[in-house]
Amino acid sequence: MILQHEPAQGPGYLLQCLREQDIPVHLIRPDLGEAVPRNASAFGGVVLLGSDHGVHDGLPWIRAEQSLLIDALRSSRPVLGHCFGAQQLARAMGADVTRNPRPDIGWRELWITPTARSLFGGQDRLLSFNWHYDSFQIPAGATRTLFGSNCLNKGFSLGPHVGLQSHLEVTEQGLRDWCAHGRDELRHGRGLTVQSEAEILAALPERLTRLRQAAGSLYRHWIGQLDRPPVFGRRHAA
């Protein structure tokens, strides 16, 4: 199950990796009024993507996702959260989500912790795309996997669950759509930690090639832990 919350923040490269493993995907859009399932055990795993909303916004679908995540944790269904999705996962695990000291928007070099390097293909650094204002604390019992100069807690793992305060799933077209959607936000937010649209879109083929070396390794690891029931989902992602 993939929970998508914004038109310009789709599953991207993750969807390609899932298809390569012949895993059907049930894509849900809670932001458009589609119901969030209550029972995670009906699915092999749960993916949460990014959102322009924050986890404390109090919207009904945000609360419904919290209930779903708590059920996923209880039933040991693997969860993979990207940015807002990672904040939702951290919160379901009892960790705080607060305002980051500064916005973090654009391409950044992140450091991979020694214990997590096998997840990312043996690399010690990761060039990743970021677009967030909040950040999570590392949940109790979890291990930090990524950290950066603008945000200390960029990733964590706990058993089959992975939270990423960055976007490993992005594609070239997805980034162009996202920048078009957030153009005013980029114009008003310019600063040392907010890149311009031109800076974000520069050298995309090279950047995405580097990103996918690490992202592919992590995604394959997570996919390998999925419980594959006879029907993984009902509606396939486009």
TrEMBL record:
Family annotation (PANTHER family): GLUTAMINE AMIDOTRANSFERASE YLR126C-RELATED
Species whose genome carries this gene: Roseateles aquatilis
GO cellular-component term (any): cytosol
Pfam families per the UniProt record, alphabetical: GATase (PF00117)
SUPFAM superfamilies: Class I glutamine amidotransferase-like
Alphabetical keyword list: Glutamine amidotransferase, Transferase
Gene3D superfamilies assigned to the protein according to its UniProt record, in alphabetical order: 3.40.50.880
Lineage of origin: Bacteria, Pseudomonadati, Pseudomonadota, Betaproteobacteria, Burkholderiales
Protein name: Glutamine amidotransferase
Keyword Metal-binding: no
